[in-house]
Specification:
43% of the residues lie in helices and 22% in strands. By secondary structure, it is of the alpha+beta class. The chain has a three-stranded antiparallel beta sheet. The two termini are 23 Å apart.
Length: 147
């Protein structure tokens, strides 16, 4: 969402005293899985249908914005490590989100080629663990603000 920090401030401001704004956002734009989407697209001369998600502001920036508007704000960053059955499962996980802008301008054959190339890149970047599964790091930012 463009300019989402201002939207968060507006939402917080619209709450009654004691109201709570709870937010969680993926903070994975610098993770290999997302950067490899760009790499595969660039190598095939593919332009995505819309702009990629920008990096999130720093937690300090959210704090500076929201703290004056509320009685309490907690911000934390956590990284989930998802064990995925296989590399194809990693790709499947992103088909409904990060890959969509890349898929939009492609026909079926081009999409299949993109997926095959992306899966190969994922295989190189995320080695299978001792149990044969793939560990996908997924950082998230959480904000809990009380008006």
């Amino acid at each position: 969402m463009p300019d989402h920090p201002k939207v968060l401030a507006r939402l917080l401001w619209s709450l009654p005293a004691g109201g709570v704004l709870a937010v969680q956002m993926p903070d994975n734009t610098n993770e290999s899985a997302l950067m490899l989407m760009e790499k595969v697209a660039a190598s095939a001369g593919i332009t995505r249908a819309n702009m990629a998600r920008n990096d999130l502001p720093r937690p300090e920036d959210y704090s500076d914005l929201l703290r004056p508007l509320c009685s309490n704000v907690d911000i934390w960053h956590i990284c989930y490590n998802h064990l995925i059955e296989n590399h194809e499962g990693v790709v499947e996980r992103f088909k409904g989100s990060g890959l969509r802008p890349f898929f939009a301008p492609l026909d079926v054959a081009m999409r299949e080629t993109f997926i095959a190339n992306y899966t190969d890149e994922i295989r190189r970047a995320y080695p299978a663990r001792s149990n044969g599964k793939v560990m996908l790091k997924f950082p998230r930012l959480f904000i809990l603000a009380v008006r």
